[in-house]
């Protein structure tokens, strides 16, 4: 965690990914660019996995990594614990996004199948006959138009963002723990006895 250049690049990447996750989650509220009643929006959108999970919970460690380095970065092991805790927070948020995005993809969109009633027509599909791999049945959802494609693309983007964020934050956790426990963070001219 004390490598200033590596941490800053990781922070910039996490910042960009968190921003993209927030935008993707926002777009899920407006299927195909339409403004719908809240009751007609897919239920997994309301878990705020892009805003909260891959967004805000990852923004905090990203900003910490951007600020990173400094004079006292590796001054003592106790001071290095806080960045590790923030990286754990980011990992938890990213994993939350992955789980909710996966569930959103598996359950499918909330749509009108032509009867005037909104339902989840793909929710009880088995994995073998899943709608994700059978594009012709996407026409089952008639309103909002192209809702299946909208949900598949945005939930997939959030799934990918969450996976990358989880790997980056987890790598920062591992790096920080190695710095704390193995003492790999000694600067030139620093007395190793002052790190405790």
Q: What oligomerization state is this entry in?
A: single chain
Number of strands: 2
Q: Report the C-alpha radius of gyration, rounded.
A: 21 Å
Structural class: mainly alpha
Shape: elongated
Helix content: 40-55%
Unreliable stretches: none
Average pLDDT, all residues = 85
Proportion of strand residues? under 5%
How does this model look, in words?
Helices cover 55% and strands 2% of the residues. The chain is mainly α and 196 residues long. It has a two-stranded antiparallel sheet with strand order 1-2. The longest helix is centred in the last third of the chain and has 36 residues, at 147-182. It is elongated. The mean pLDDT is 85.
Topology of this structure?
Blueprint lengths: L3 H25 L20 H19 L13 H27 L3 E2 L5 E2 L27 H36 L14
Antiparallel strand pairs: 1-2
Helix pairs in contact: 1-2, 1-4, 2-3, 2-4, 3-4
In short:
By secondary structure, the protein is mostly helical. It is built from four helices and two strands.
Task: Please describe the structure with a list of short key phrases separated by commas or semicolons.
196 residues, mainly alpha, two-stranded antiparallel sheet, 4 helices, elongated
């Amino acid at each position: 965690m004390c490598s200033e250049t590596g941490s800053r690049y990781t922070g910039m990447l996490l910042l960009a990914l968190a921003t993209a996750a927030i935008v993707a989650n926002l777009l899920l509220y407006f299927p195909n660019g339409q403004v719908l009643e809240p009751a007609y929006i897919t239920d997994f959108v309301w878990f705020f996995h892009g805003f909260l999970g891959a967004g805000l919970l990852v923004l905090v460690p990203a900003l910490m990594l951007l600020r990173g380095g400094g004079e006292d970065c590796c001054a003592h092991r106790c001071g290095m614990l806080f960045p590790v805790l923030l990286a754990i927070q980011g990992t938890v948020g990213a994993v939350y996004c992955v789980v909710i995005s996966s569930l959103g993809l598996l359950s499918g969109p909330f749509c009108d199948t032509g009867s005037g009633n909104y339902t989840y027509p793909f929710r009880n599909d088995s994995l073998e006959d899943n709608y994700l791999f059978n594009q012709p049945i996407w026409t089952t959802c008639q309103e909002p138009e192209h809702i299946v494609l909208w949900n598949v693309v945005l939930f997939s983007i959030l799934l990918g963002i969450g996976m990358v964020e989880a790997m980056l934050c987890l790598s920062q956790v591992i790096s920080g723990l190695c710095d704390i426990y193995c003492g790999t963070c000694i600067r030139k001219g620093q007395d190793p006895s002052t790190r405790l």
